[in-house]
Amino acid sequence: MKQWLPICLRYQQLIFAYLIDLKGKLSVSFTFLLWLLGAGSAFADNNENLTDMDLEDLLTKEVRTASKLAKQVSNSPSAVSIVTAKDIQSYGYRTLAEIISSMRGLNTTSDHVYTYMSGRGFGRPGDYPGRIMLLIDGHQANDNLYNASYLGQDGLLDTELIDRVEYVSGPGSVIYGNGAFYGIINVITKKGTQFDGAQMAVDGYSQGGFKGRLTYGDQLDNGADILLSASGFKRQGEDYYFSAFDSPATNNGIANNLDQERNQRLFLKANYQQWSLETAYVDRKKEDPAAAYDTEFNAKPNVLRDTNAYINLSYEDALSSQLTNITKVYYGHYGYAARNLYNGALYKENNLGRWWGAESKFVYTGFDQHQIVYGAEYRNDYQQDFYLPNAHLEHSIYMASAYVQDEFRWSPTWAVNAGARLDDGGHQVRNLSPRVAVIYSPSEHTDVKASYATAFRRPNAFEKYYEDGTTQIANPEVKKERIAATELVLEHRPDATSKWLGSMYYYRTKDLIAMDDLATMPGILQAMNWPRSQTKGLDIEYEKKWSPSTRLRANYAWQYATDGQGRWVVNSPKHLANVNVAHSVLQDQLHLGLELQYVGSRLTELSDRLGGYTVVNFTLHTSALFKNTTVSASIKNLFNRDYAVPTPTFYRPDSFEQDQRDIWVQITYDFK
User: Fold this and answer.
1) Is 158 exposed, middle or buried (0-12, 13-18, 19+ CB in 10 A)?
2) Winning range, highest mean pLDDT, from 17-26, 124-133, 237-246, 612-621
3) Are 437 and 450 in contact (CB under 8 A)?
4) Among 390, 554, 576, 605, which residue's Cβ finds the most Cβ atoms within 10 Å?
5) pLDDT of residue 522
6) How far from chain centre, in Å, is Cα 383?
7) DSSP state of 19
8) 245 is in which domain, residue-wise?
9) Which of 184-193, 391-400, 509-518 shows the lowest mean pLDDT across its residues?
């Protein structure tokens, strides 16, 4: 309904009001949006629904992550796993972290403030980068201070806006450069036509939580596709017990009313002919019940605030029948603020990161059996500032890059994909990242892929320059980390309703960056390079679709990661498994989703062994109760399992108990 567009636009204006300090960089967005709404040209939109496809059809859909251009999943040089919007609804995923935890070989942990991602055997608690690059519609979503991916309520997107999530395992530095270390996750958002009008949703949580969302999406009369959304979330949280603080002086280890969290999100996506504009914003505030960095326990204020935003404008043009160009410019903003008590005194910290960049990519098909991708990118992280009570640390960096990749299919059964990227960022950061992959397809049902690739990650500003004089000191000499990866992938599709995916890999990492206590100053952290480490493992995934209403997805991963001395690394479970089953009953009017997640035992920072655990989640949803209304309900941790995860070195407890049973209800109404 077009009358809802002004309401959603009013919500979207909040982002521009908040980010007015971006010194005019948003003016291009205003101009483009006004032109978009007023232009008068026809535009044909492909409105296929990914969630209703057979697996065979899904395999021929485009996957954009692996080589930064549209490619069939079966022809991608890497192993690709996909979670669709239908999966998100069936299993009640409320955050990107919940989606990622269900995917092949991936895992997340939480310290009750941030959520950390691990994969391919590495996931040290408190390690902000995570080493798996996060993209939103191909735009890098990591900040430029900590290189962190935000996966919880601090994330940029409501899950209802996600069309699918692609996970490509293995290094991706040839196309994506710095930070595409162990893999890439690309979150593809929905088109406006998938909403076909206005939608309102209200959520309630058993932990005293509430969320409201208003979304408008449609194809306008001039052919432009537009999606706008605004949401707000607030949660009271729980009281937590920490044995490390169990004394009368610290409330017997109980943190009372110190788990509150709230956020505000805004999102705009617009496509018109060759132009695309996308902007997202989130403001999240979270209390810390566990008193990180020796702040006072069970005392207020102990609160952190993260603000994250980006704008991405791109233009795609067919220069000829054989040459296509995609050019984009982007801008990013990240802010962090902390208010804590240290020995009765208020501590304030305000950090700010800003960056801009541009990329131009060409796809050339003029040579027979070749598809060549080449391009250049420049990124300027012109503000990486830490404002501490005793110091103002101001830094900036840049990265200039050029890359080329050629896919040569010399026969129906054989193809080779080879490429390289050169990154030059000054400050002793210059890196060449090559990759080669061979794809053998003995039949239309089977693909075998063998690849070798290297990647790198430069130290982020926090690792290199942060120094507060109390908990951490800088290390300007910390070096970039590098990886060499060998991987073998097998994909088999016995029929149109099932698919097997398996991979074996061996990674050798040099100069891995980790925060460790100084030997001469216990309790003081500094970023250091591990000489060498290695990871070997395998993962298997199976998908089966008996009917549109009954489907199965299961995966298992075995991984073993060791440091330079051959020791098993922290928070690296050897076994991970997920089983997801969706089924509809009552003549397909009630949809049920059951999820089982298993995480094997792992080590804490103090080398204590935490036992493995299994968590079961259950979700149901129906659209049969009221017209244009969908009711969903989820029970997370159905059997109320007690389990713990390792904690970062800057927390006193060695491990944290995770949330117990949580009930979530959502009512969604479509204005048709």
Assistant:
1) buried
2) 612-621
3) yes
4) 576
5) 79
6) 23
7) G
8) 2-671
9) 509-518
How far is CA 442 from each of CA 214, 449, 503, rounded to the nearest angstrom?
A: 49, 11, 18
Which among 128, 185, 156 has a CA at the least distance from the CA of 308? 156
Residue 61 has a pLDDT of: 54
* pTM of structure: 0.90
- Distant-in-sequence, close-in-space partners of 623: CB < 8 Å, separation ≥ 6: 589, 629, 630, 631
Q: Are 610 and 603 in contact (CB under 8 A)?
A: yes
Task: Provide the number of structural domains found in the chain.
Answer: 1
Section 435-459 average pLDDT? 96
Report the distance separating Cα 434 and Cα 419, nearest Å. 6
Give the torsion sign (CA, 178, 179, 184, 187): negative
- Mean pLDDT, the chain, whole residue set: 89
DSSP symbol at 410: -
- Binned at pLDDT 50, 70 and 90, residue 36 comes out as very low
3-class SS at 196? coil
- Separation between Cα atoms, residue 180 and residue 134, nearest integer Å: 9
Amino acid at 457: R
Which DSSP symbol is given to 185?
A: E
- Nearest C-alpha neighbor of 142 from the set 111, 116, 107: 116
Q: What is the DSSP letter of 426?
A: E
Q: Tokens 């706008």 belong to which residue?
A: 228
Beta bridge partners of 279: 268, 311
Q: What is the mean pLDDT of residues 631-639?
A: 98
Q: What are phi and psi of 15, to 5 degrees?
A: -65, -40
Query: For residues 622 and 671, what is the distance between their CA atoms, to the nearest angstrom?
Result: 17
CA 1 to chain centre: 32
DSSP string covering 539-570: EEEEEEEEETTEEEEEEEEEEEEE-TTSPBPT
Task: Record the tokens describing residue 421, joined without a space.
Answer: 């990227």
Helix, strand, coil percentages for the chain (3-state, nearest 5): 10, 55, 35
User: How far apart are alpha carbons 332 and 308 in whole angstroms?
Assistant: 8
SS3 state at 215 = strand
Q: What is the pLDDT of residues 77-122, one digit of tens each?
A: 889 999 999 999 999 999 999 999 999 999 999 999 999 999 999 9
Structure-token match 């997805």, residue found: 553
| Spatial distance between the Cα atoms of 44 and 223, rounded to a whole number of angstroms | 7
Q: In this structure, what CATH number is given to the domain that contains residue 587?
A: 2.40.170.20
**56 pLDDT more than 80:** no
Nearest to residue 51, comparing CAs of 429, 446, 549?
549
Percent of the chain with pLDDT over 90: 78
CA atoms of 131 and 120, how far apart (whole Å):
10
Which residues are 341's β-sheet partners?
A: 346
Q: Tokens at residue 76, please?
A: 């991608």
Beta bridge partners of 613: 599
With cut-offs at 50, 70 and 90, classify the pLDDT of residue 612: very high
Asked whether the beta carbons of 135 and 127 are under 8 A apart, the reply is no
Is 50 exceeded by the pLDDT of residue 24?
no
- Residue 307: which of 348, 237, 269, 354 has the closest Cα? 354
Q: How far is CA 560 from the centre of its chain?
A: 23
* Cβ proximity of 109 and 125 under 8 Å: yes
Handedness of CA 113, 118, 121, 123 (dihedral sign): negative
Give me the count of residues in the chain.
Answer: 672
**Sequence letter at residue 106:** L
Q: How far apart are the first and last CA of the chain?
A: 7
- For residue 128, the tally of other CB atoms under 10 A from its CB is 19
3-state secondary structure of 599: strand
